[in-house]
Specification:
There is one protein chain. The chain is α+β, with helices and mostly antiparallel strands and 97 residues long. The protein contains 3 helices and 4 strands. A 4-stranded antiparallel β-sheet has the order 2-3-1-4, with helices on one face. Strand 2 (34-36) and strand 3 (41-44) form a beta hairpin. The two termini are 28 Å apart. It comes from Streptomyces atrovirens. InterPro entries: MTH1187/YkoF-like (IPR029756), Thiamine_BP (IPR002767), UPF0045_domain (IPR051614). This is MTH1187 family thiamine-binding protein.
Length: 97
């Protein structure tokens, strides 16, 4: 399972990078495969472990912000491992043709 999610603190002003860093820190410390880009953090693992990390990432932001927005998208595909890498490699292979 791959989950792409974005946690945004609300009511803290325009500069939210330090709050987002709190959430990303939780993800990176989880030990699960992950990637962060300008819009989302993606994490890969089984349902329970991924959702636990998302919950803890939201809680980290919620501890410092009066309101939190969560956007989440999941690719639930049993039996697939290393999807974070293999999906991108497939697209890159087609681009190279």
């Amino acid at each position: 399972m791959i989950v792409a999610f974005s946690v945004t603190p609300l009511g803290v002003g325009e500069d939210v990078g330090e709050y987002v860093a709190d959430a990303v820190r939780v993800v990176r410390e989880s030990g699960l495969p992950n990637r962060t880009d300008a819009m989302f953090t993606s994490i890969e693992g089984d349902w329970d472990e991924v959702m636990d990390v998302v919950k803890r990432a939201v809680a980290a932001v919620e501890a410092r912000a009066p309101r939190v927005s969560l956007v989440l998208k999941a690719d639930i595909r049993p039996g697939v491992e290393d999807g974070l890498t293999s999906k991108v490699e497939t697209v890159e292979r087609h681009l190279a043709e």
